[in-house]
Amino acid sequence: MRLSLTVSAGVLLFSYSAICADTGAGVAILHEKCLSCHGESSAMSGLVLTTRENLLKGGSRGPAIVPGKAAESLLYKAVSGSGEVLRMPPVGGGLPAADIAVIKEWLDAGAPWSKAAPVTTSQWWAFRRPVRPAVPSGAPNPIDAFLNRKLQTAAIAPSPEADRLTLLRRASYDLLGLPPTKEQIDGFLGDRSPSAWEKVVDNLLASPRYGEKWGRHWLDLARYGDTAGFEQDPYLLIAWRYRDYVIKSFNDDKPYDLFTKEQIAGDELYPNDPQAKSGTGFYRVGTNRDMLFKVEDVNLVEKRMDMVDTTGSVFLGMTVGCARCHDHKFDPVPQKDYYRMQAIFQPAVGERVFLDYNPARNYDISENSRSFRLYQLGEQAAKINSKYSDDLKAKKMAALPADVAAAIGTAEDKRTLEQARIVLDNANKIRVSGREISDAMSKEDKDRLDSIAQRLLQMFTGYGPPPMAPGIVDIGRDAPKTFIAIRGNPEAFGDEVQPGFLTALGGGDVPEAPLHAQTTYRRKALAEWIASPDNPLFARVMVNRIWQFHFGSGLLKTPSDFGTRAGLPSNPELLDWLATEFISKGWSMKAMHKLIMTSAAYQRVPTANAAALAKDPANDLLSHFNRRRLEAEEIRDASLQVSGELNLKIGGYPAVPPLTREEMFGMIGSPANNWSVSPDPSEHVRRTIYTLQRRTFQQPMAQAFDGPDGILSCPRRNESTTAPQSLSLLNSGFTMDRARALANKIASPADAWASIYGRAPSQEEMGEAQKFLDRQITLTGSKTKALAELVRGLLNTNEFLYVD
Amino acid sequence: MTRRELLARSSCGFGLAALAGIVEGAEANSLLPKPAPLPAKAKSVIYLHMHGGVSHVDTFDPKPELTKHTGKPLSAELAKIIKTSFIHDPAKAILRGSPWEFRPGGQSGLPVSDLYPNLRDVADDLVVLRGCYSDQFDHAPAIYLRHTGNQLPGRPCLGSWITYGLGTENQNLPAFVVMSDGSTKSGPPAYSSGFLPAVYQGTIFRSGESPILYLKNPEGVSSDSQRATLDFISTMDRMQERTRPDDSTLEARISSYELAYRMQSSAPEAVDITKETETTKKLYGIGEEFTDDFGRKCLLARRLVERGVRFVELISGTNVGQDWDDAHTDLTGSHARMTKKTDKPIAGLIRDLKSRGMLDSTLIVWGGEFGRTPLSQGDNGRDHHPYGFTSWMAGGGIKGGRALGATDEFGVQASEMRVDAHDLNSTILRLMGMNHRQLTYFYQGRDMRLTDVKGDGEFSAQLLA
């Protein structure tokens, strides 16, 4: 049993449950309740509670425990409040009685602790630089060489290669998130050249649809949303610029190290490149804590936390967030490291990046005069209206009994209980509708309102979003100080810390910025430290993510956690070889896709043989392909593509497709404001990535199919199967509309098969389809309606919903 | 394969598991009922959320000292520790006693104000928790905290955790149902499954023939047509499956359509209250102007729990209509209105459950995201107040007719038996037969739990004693 609770001395932490099993709940309590002040890095009063030896040694007040004798142990006296020592823990009113009893029992039992030798940080595989292993012989693609070796050892024969349509469909969904078109299918099925498959992969990688699919994976990680969250959930008006930046970066095959540097520190590294600077939108597209009311100080801290946590999990696969309150329980991240990293983001503030300098400045200037004129017009319109509404209300009041009129006439905050009740019962009687006002209005006033409307129309014709992107910059060269927050409480200040890097990964300090700098260059230092071939995690984490999105699961199954709880990858040599290959190919993601997709492993059927089922049921060795369900976006986008409706317009501010009242139930605020449907119907059929992503409201179908909520960084989506999914796919207006659209374009079942499955029906299928069609024609009295039912049915089948 | 054959097949062991929505083999993604790991007092929860915040000193926490000090300021020390939303400076605001009288209720004499005459009559079933507190004084984070244990959105809520832990008794209805007045200040993240699989998500229910979204056939599709299309989907899937044997995922998907079909009949049956007696409907205030809406929700809650639904949440109040939070400027009006809408229905629910012998196995939890200031906001308002407020529980085998915990003499701070959201949640879990420390889900490198590292103030023993 391995165990140790500390870190900075280069010792690893192991699982909490393992501790419990081995040494009892007593250690677990110390671990959970005391280490924030008595860990290796904090060591208050010289006392460190991480090993039995340290407890025996004790702190400035002497040994902490007397094994076998709780009553004589300083530790017990402190937690139970018996004796003259300081009561511990000092805040929060002490430990619960049950915990104190457990500690007593544990001490009386001799304070048992594991004897196993600690493992040092440098021994954890993920914290050492990947070393390029030799490629085993026997396969043209090194991926197969590594995988085959394991399969041979396990005596599992790989499954055979899939047929061409299956392969093309798989590749098309994996790279573009869409099914292949008829032209693509015909082209590949007709191409007998040895390089046919390679050409397919190249063509798919060259498609602008590629960035829309892989950009979505990245937006999941970047917890992207178009609104701020919380009670008002207002639009983040320019967040979509970051979305477009991400899509373009993928399409351009921007080297991953550069992509990362731009997002962490584009402003410091490339101050003259607005596109690169807009990468820092990464830190602006999450939930906006500014929305919390009157707790600006806490919000500021929360914002820094989000920056640190997201940077750690996305780029490094480290759950550093755990070290916010105490030394990380499982990974060698002392609390101090967490705040050193937070210090890097301490001077960062939100900024609008001018994508095009002069138009952006002019936008601000015209917005300024526009606002001034709006004040005038708004006031004028209100005056005209209130003239009539006051009058109408007065008339209604006059018709009410005196006590009711008096109650209503009394200011809300001066009413008696009885008056409040009267108002409650009569509120409807004095309401004035817009209709009543308009009926009462004179011709002159109507004309005046019309002319105001005309002027407003002129002001807003052609109005569009500003050429600006969200980003961050430092407030200047001198950063505010950063302090450790005791137990994570932002109002309890501990020691001051200086910016620096994670010690587990080699550590390092951030150099002082030059005297006349306008920024601290802290993020630049961080970006260069992370996005480097020398960083042991950076390349591994990304190749593992790419692998996961091709095979359904990473070589390491916890894509955002490479810490000690993650265990070992299923094929460590392959992961390291891929990481070094990624670096040597200039961090090209497209090269990595091609390498993976041209492997034999990628091209197998999704069916396991008997040996594989028996010996490797989880398919860790990849003897066959992992079938997957379409993602929420893929279902919507593919339905629109097969019905011939998909609008492939790229980029721009969010499209808002119409939803029914039932679908919008529970949305914060009024749908008229918060789900303002795009007036142009062609916007309703755009790819899902371009539709509005509200932080507090998901489109119901996306929600049912495990779509991202944009709240927490999501490295891997769930793939659930539920009845609400079936109900939505079966009965939603969306599916019905697609079914009718396609039904209007086709004449026979064979057409439906070609559009939806990209193949011809078998004879048996044809028979069933014809039978069904006849039945539906009888039921509906219309061939088009019957065809629509056929399409609706096929859009609900497993063949459509799964990628083989 | 015909539908009949499919159903026949589904009644075997495997089919049954598939119906519950299992996917990916061993992954915990099932709604099949699971035995509670510890002795359980309750089988279901009805969670009544008073959206916007209820004034404790006007409902369940009488404060004669506060009434005496009406018009006077708060002490300087107390004023310093409280933050307010709309009261500009707590030190300059004045205390205001309750305009409502408190009277003893039931055999126990538990005091309840005139705002709740009906609940006062069932006071013997209530345990009033007067020592509740929170550290969030904005609605959205306070609602998230109470529901999910975290002030930020994105975590699974209590209802999701409970259905994750226990599954549900009726596979033809959702496990976790939410009924609201529409828009809330928190939005759906308050009843979201967060990082738990979507199968544990709260399902919005409404009254009427289509209680669940997408339950009705599409516009213009007859039920015969619908049935034919469903059978066709199944035929196509079975044909495809022949070349892809042993895939439980595909099998589960096929079954999910049958479940969807059965929901189409079982859900409307569950919400059809025409067969309820007039006496029962009256008990809930159905048919009366103010109580009809919430009365129906409460009756549906009983009907759902009766049919094995694990967790039902009812939300009273909305941010686009009438709400408890209107108390900012109109305490008397808002609280008169909101209690009038909910008092009789909730009391009716307790009585009805009791008379059917269901109260002992159903835990009712009532409360808002925070209380309201004993200080006056303007002349007739009360502001947000998380430092001390009241929730209550009933049913689930707890011994009612008692108040536990207390606030100070002015109702400002929880002073005895202080209970935060985590303590309340760990207690609810315990009454359902689960230890909050052991109900975990591995996510992003950690065994996550509803109460995070808190919740050790679990107090079920005091409720049952």
Describe the protein's architecture and organization.
The complex is a heterodimer of chains A (804) and B (465). With 804 residues, chain A is mainly α. Chain A is built from 35 helices and six strands. In chain A, the strands form three sheets. Chain A has a two-stranded antiparallel sheet with strand order 1-2. The longest helix of chain A is centred in the middle third of the chain and has 42 residues, at 357-398. Chain A starts with 15 loop residues before the first helix and ends with a strand. Chain B is an alpha/beta fold and 465 residues long. Chain B contains 14 helices and 16 strands. In chain B, the strands form five sheets. An eight-stranded mixed β-sheet of chain B has the order 6-5-7-1-8-11-4-12, sandwiched between helices. A two-stranded antiparallel sheet of chain B has the order 2-3. In chain B, helix 2 crosses helix 9, helix 8 (223-241) packs antiparallel against helix 9 (248-271) and helix 11 (292-306) packs parallel to helix 12. Chain B is globular and about 80 Å long. Classes of the chains: A mainly alpha (804), B alpha/beta (465). At the A-B interface, helix 19, helix 29, helix 30, helix 31 and helix 33 of A face helix 6, strand 6, helix 8, helix 9 and helix 12 of B.
Explain the layout of strands and helices.
The complex is a heterodimer of chains A (804) and B (465).
Chain A: H1 16-23, H2 25-33, H3 35-38, H4 52-57, H5 74-80, H6 97-108, H7 142-153, H8 164-176, H9 182-190, H10 196-206, H11 209-221, H12 239-251, H13 256-269, H14 274-277, H15 296-316, H16 335-345, E1 348-354, H17 357-398, H18 402-409, H19 417-426, H20 434-440, H21 443-460, E2 468-474, E3 482-485, E4 493-497, H22 522-530, H23 538-551, H24 572-584, H25 589-597, H26 610-615, E5 628-629, H27 632-642, H28 671-674, H29 700-704, H30 723-731, H31 733-743, H32 749-757, H33 763-780, H34 783-795, H35 798-801, E6 802-803
Antiparallel strand pairs in A: 1-2, 3-4, 5-6
Chain B: H1 3-10, H2 13-19, E1 44-50, H3 64-68, H4 76-81, E2 102-105, E3 110-113, H5 117-121, E4 126-132, H6 139-148, H7 158-166, E5 176-179, E6 203-204, H8 223-241, H9 248-271, H10 278-283, H11 292-306, E7 311-316, H12 331-355, E8 362-367, E9 371-372, E10 384-385, E11 389-395, E12 402-404, E13 406-407, E14 414-416, H13 421-431, E15 440-443, E16 446-449, H14 460-464
Parallel strand pairs in B: 1-7, 1-8, 4-12, 5-6, 5-7
Antiparallel strand pairs in B: 2-3, 4-11, 8-11, 9-10, 13-14, 15-16
Helix pairs in contact in B: 2-9, 8-9, 11-12
